[in-house]
Design goal:
Shape: elongated
Strand content: 5-15%
Low-confidence stretches: none
CATH class: Mainly Alpha
Structural class: alpha+beta
């Protein structure tokens, strides 16, 4: 059982944020992007369908690990830009998620 001997970033993201393997891979790519990005930018970067980038961006926003800003277009309409939250906030979110996970593990143990 690898999780008990060695913990990776993937394990932390799965346990603290309940991300799927595909979402984890997308998030690791998002960590590499330094500038604000659109869903289309992310889709092209990942070489995946736009709907995948949209779903993952929405989930990351719900989890609080990315922030979104709206930019109005000159000819009408708008576009959303996403960016990873600052590293200290990200670390805090992951720590909080792991505390929740640890509480769940303790409950399972107490149920024995």
């Amino acid at each position: 059982m690898r999780l008990c001997k060695e913990v990776s970033l993937e394990d932390v993201l799965k346990c603290s944020l309940d991300l799927s393997e595909a979402e984890i891979n997308t998030f690791k790519s998002v960590l590499e992007i330094e500038e604000p990005f659109t869903v289309t930018d992310l889709s092209e970067y990942l070489e995946r369908d736009r709907s995948v980038a949209q779903r993952h961006s929405k989930k990351f926003l719900e989890k609080g690990i990315v922030k979104r800003t709206q930019k109005n277009k000159e000819k009408g309409g708008y576009e959303f830009f996403y960016r990873i939250v600052d590293r200290d906030k990200l670390k805090s979110i992951l720590r909080d998620g792991l505390q929740n996970f640890t509480s769940q593990v303790k409950s399972v143990i107490e149920g024995l």
